[in-house]
Amino acid sequence: MGIFKIEGGISLKGEITPQGAKNEALQILCAVLLTPEKVIINNIPDIIDINKLITLLGNLGVKIQKNGSGSYTFQADEVNIEYLETEAFKKEGGSLRGSIMIVGPLLARFGKGYIPKPGGDKIGRRRLDTHFEGFINLGAKFRYNREDHFYGVEAPKGLKGADMLLDEASVTGTANIVMAAVLAKGKTTVYNAACEPYLQQLCKMLNSMGAKITGVGSNLLTIEGVESLGGCEHRILPDMIEIGSWIGLAAMTKSEITIKNVSWDNLGVIPTTFRKLGITLERRGDDIYIPAHVDGYEVKTDIDGSILTIADAPWPGFTPDLLSIVLVVATQARGDVLIHQKMFESRLFFVDKLIDMGAKIMLCDPHRAVVMGHDFKSQLKATTMSSPDIRAGISLLIAALSAKGTSTIQNIEQIDRGYERIDERLRAIGANIVRA
Ligand SMILES: CC(=O)N[C@H]1[C@@H](OP(=O)(O)OP(=O)(O)OC[C@H]2O[C@@H](n3ccc(=O)[nH]c3=O)[C@H](O)[C@@H]2O)O[C@H](CO)[C@@H](O)[C@@H]1O
Ligand SMILES: C=C(OP(=O)(O)O)C(=O)O
């Protein structure tokens, strides 16, 4: 397992360009299974999770050609569906969360889809019921083997469009159901659909392949099934979670940073949420400019003076993936913040490490933490820590960059699974970080 050694307490300066979005890329890569024609995808991030999914597609027989940095051509004209029943697939298929989204396309095109319990972060229960209830609504037969946690759906006679109301607006669940419904017979409506920008991107890509999806961007999608889909070219959006991470990093290290080409119109409430923490962000064209916060940043209260609460919610609410970053940034703010992580129950436990570093945080229960900001009057102390999940990992990295002295972060594979060449990119703006 690799480690990062970080010499903190240094202000950074410069420009940083966000990578392509991990969570969009996972959906888009699965969609290549829907057509025998060539699909070109640009701006694919070079990170562990994405590279694992590309390997999985290769093992399924998809032809893969690298065109250049971040650009690939995929062709799923000879899919080896038997691979789904091998021991190798049982091992490999479960190693990331995003692999669950191969099931919808395979079911739609080949009448069957199997998957071992998918991996991803250990951040609480991660149910798959919404996915499989959706497939069942489309006429698939479902089976689950409790012993080896293996899920399967089959529809040898094809899928049939249906009206459905999802039990929750699951992001990967909606993507999976949409990818199954595009090739079903007749009309499907999906209400309480997730509608975040990455899902909108998926729907736009599918429409460019010949699918008929309307309502894109809303929570009611209507899908007219088509016989087959063709090839296309698609570009992945910048990663909004990475953008939020750089905003937090800039504020915490009092650095002047420009985040390039962020696709502002797809950031939703992310900029306003950081502004509530007192962070100044300027829109400059499609860039975000963050001045050095030499005098710190002051948390805004609610209109009636009550303590600011930052909570997650399905899009267009604030993404749960940025709450850990907001929490670490709050430790040096002027004022107090309640962080309410509603979706996942094990994502706040990393606060122990921040408390060890000197942060004032009260963990009220698994979902809520009150952060009492230091206003930089007391700097965090460098320490040795281990990254429990991807977003806690980056939050600890931000804490280490702000702390005086040398910190060590272990288990950095958790960070590498979502952030491309992070050490190299941070060194380019002046950070003292080495990989060992
Ligand atoms: C590979 C990928 O794209 N992963 C993202 C995806 O995961 P994923 O698609 O797995 O997450 P889901 O949207 O299914 O649900 C996330 C959690 O929120 C709960 N939930 C969800 C919707 C809802 O209306 N109410 C509710 O309580 C679910 O029970 C679950 O515990 O979306 C999550 C929520 O944005 C992100 O954290 C993950 O980074
Ligand atoms: C939780 C995340 O990823 P995954 O769903 O892949 O575990 C994340 O990206 O923050």
UniProtKB/TrEMBL annotation:
SUPFAM superfamilies: EPT/RTPC-like. The active site is at D121 (proton donor). It is found in: Cytoplasm. It is an enzyme of class 2 (transferase). It comes from the Bacteria. GO terms for cellular component: cytoplasm. InterPro entries: Enolpyruvate_Tfrase_dom (IPR001986), Enolpyruvate_Tfrase_sf (IPR036968), MurA_subfamily (IPR050068), RNA3'P_cycl/enolpyr_Trfase_a/b (IPR013792), UDP_GlcNAc_COvinyl_MurA (IPR005750). UDP-N-acetyl-alpha-D-glucosamine binds at R97, D321, M343. Keywords: Cell cycle, Cell division, Cell shape, Cell wall biogenesis/degradation, Cytoplasm, Peptidoglycan synthesis, Transferase. Phosphoenolpyruvate binds at K22, N23. Cell wall formation. Adds enolpyruvyl to UDP-N-acetylglucosamine. Belongs to the EPSP synthase family. MurA subfamily. This is UDP-N-acetylglucosamine 1-carboxyvinyltransferase.
